[in-house]
Amino acid sequence: MILDGKACSEELLEALKEEIGKSGLHPRLATLMVGSDPGSQMYIRMKHRACEKVGIGSVAIDLPAGVTTDRVLQDVRRLNDDPDIDGILVQLPLPAAIRSGQVIRSIRADKDVDGFHPCNLGLLFSGSPRFVPCTPKGIMTLLEKNHIGVAGQHAVVVGRSIDVGRPMAALFTNADATVTLCHSRTRNLSDETRRADILVSAVGKPHTITADMVKQGAVVVDVGINQLNGRLVGDVDFAPVREIASAITPVPGGVGPMTIATLMENTFLAAKWRVCDPVW
After folding, report:
1. What's the mean per-residue pLDDT of the chain?
2. pTM score, whole prediction
3. Catalytic amino acids?
4. Which of 23, 245, 269, 277 is most buried as measured by Cβ atoms within 10 A of its Cβ?
């Protein structure tokens, strides 16, 4: 089974558009990008197009690559104080000269629709999430929509980044899976991956996961987006692994669209929470 993230995301966005239309709310998302990286520019355009599709207002702040951390923080603080902005997204990665951690921590936790603020990550790991990072949450939605159960399964996550790997492991744990989190120092990686009922790869290296690393009938989720010989490929060697897996995400058209749809959901959540003021 091909886990079609594009089709699933379109269904989510259509349902979200209807829900926003009935809510009487007018959510707004602000994006902030530093520099002119073509990949980042493409992602920003996709996010703003999704906003337009579902009825979320959006504003884009584009800063030149040479700006200081203080200048970025100044814009974030202004957005924090703007009552018309529900969600703030700082496009990562930031240039090396910018102190990324400080920028992320400066975003108000109740506007952090990317889910990277330490308060939001802490709530996730405590089992009471507020904003969950969009890629892991989108993966969980994709599994659910395809009727793939998680409880009791052995989930192996390859990659321990704060935006995918670690929150993915937390979501699996919260959903009653048994979780193994692998990384660059993991010994005998293939021994770990072959034990997985659900295997998620988020390392950013083409064809890291080969057919001999996958258990027969496993569900394989490929988060990687890499260029190889002029083609867009994932972390998984798709064609041979497809013959072994019971379900697999393609690249492109798998996890990526789900990430953007989840960002829209998080932004609408921020707008709803702004008016009902939940206690965390």
Report:
1. 96
2. 0.95
3. 47, 91, 114
4. 245
